[in-house]
Amino acid sequence: MEAVIFDLDGVLIDSEQVWDEVRQSFAASHGGVWTPEATRAMQGMSTPEWGAYLVEAVGVQLTPAEASAGVIAEMEKAYAAHLPVIPGAVDAVRAVAERFPVAIASSAPAVLIKVFLDVTGLPVPVAVSSEECAAGKPSPDVYLLAASRLGVVPTSCYAVEDSTNGLRAALAAGMTVLAVPNPHFPPAPDVLAQVRVLPSIADLPDALA
């Protein structure tokens, strides 16, 4: 194995609930009606994809670009007030980076990935947003691009994920997948059965030893 690629939301930042709250509030303020399936449907989508979903499925009375820009602006405000880094995540990434090249492959927009890296100061040389890809998770595109930028083949990478769509994306990329299941939005059991499950991100360095 030559590299470790991390998801961001739900793995390093406890942000899935923040995204959900911000999107729901934004949708309600712009004519949308939230649906029970909306939260899970958007997990893993790229920014253009979930912007379109808010308009087409939730009914937000804006263009997809306006909807996504508005939500991202609210997320930046939320992160400025409090960046919800998961306990043990920073130490885990630092420990892993001593042994492997590391990257982030996230559905988060690049501006929010940068906020995380600026605040934590983590040594992550490659950070890829699915904004740069043709499709978000569960498509493997963002993982394949991250591996390419690290200069390694996907099958020589570990991927660390928390959500159903993220796990599917990493598996489709051919990576060895470790799951740290999101307690708020647990992954599908049939997908978890295909990967190694860790109790917490703090357990990752020992799992890779």
UniProtKB/TrEMBL annotation:
<dbReference type="InterPro" id="IPR023198">
    <property type="entry name" value="PGP-like_dom2"/>
</dbReference>
<dbReference type="InterPro" id="IPR006439">
    <property type="entry name" value="HAD-SF_hydro_IA"/>
</dbReference>
<keyword id="KW-0378">Hydrolase</keyword>
<protein>
    <submittedName>
        <fullName>HAD family hydrolase</fullName>
    </submittedName>
</protein>
<dbReference type="Pfam" id="PF00702">
    <property type="entry name" value="Hydrolase"/>
</dbReference>
<dbReference type="InterPro" id="IPR023214">
    <property type="entry name" value="HAD_sf"/>
</dbReference>
<dbReference type="InterPro" id="IPR036412">
    <property type="entry name" value="HAD-like_sf"/>
</dbReference>
<dbReference type="GO" id="GO:0016787">
    <property type="term" value="F:hydrolase activity"/>
</dbReference>
